[in-house]
Amino acid sequence: MLIDCHALHRYACNQTVDFLWFHFHGNSSRQYAAYLYERFGTVFAGEQIPLLRPYFESILSYAQQVPPQEHRISL
Length: 75
Hints:
0% strand
């Protein structure tokens, strides 16, 4: 799910679910979010999940390193 953190929002699930999330911002973050929304919509589901999960895990791994690998996260 792609959520604009600058807008009031709420989300929930009525089933067991794993949430992987991150907050991103920067000079082009709004434009990039608009691009993703225009191209893919708000919800990423079904066959997209196995394709996206490795990217989320990589981003979270780079973010947890000391110091965070900001260049790799940006990629």
